[in-house]
# Entry
Amino acid sequence: MSNIYIALGSNLEEPSKQILNAIELIGMIQGLSVTHISSLYKTKPIGKLDQPDFINAVIKLEGDISPEKLHAELQDIETQAGRIRFELNEPRTLDLDILLIDNIIMQTKKLTIPHPRMHLRQFVIVPLFEINQELNIPGIGSIKEILKSLPDQGVVKA
# Structure
């Protein structure tokens, strides 16, 4: 049974509802169960600044599923939510990212685990720390040290 962490984000079409609906749909994926849900956090956009603030969260799942199958399932949920991909850092109805699966380190054309920029993003690290303060991110280090090293990026509980 694997421990899996997923980041969720939305800034379009009632973002809080998008996140809560996505958590429900993720919990329906065969072989997975949602075991922890962070608070919702309001965050400023990164990169493309002329867009609404985001709502972000992190969940922990337990179960058995391949990284590729999980990635495909998450992309299907994004599509159901109306996600359309045009450019990087664009507004979105839903963004689901695999952060960690146990201590797996992998990189393919479609998928990199751990998520390659998670340790740079307070909107990921803060909710992740909320649900597991003892986490060690493979190849990166202790979540406590990562959190201390991050500049304030305007992340507040929603």
User: Anything to note?
Assistant: Helices lie at 15-27, 67-80, 122-131, 143-149.
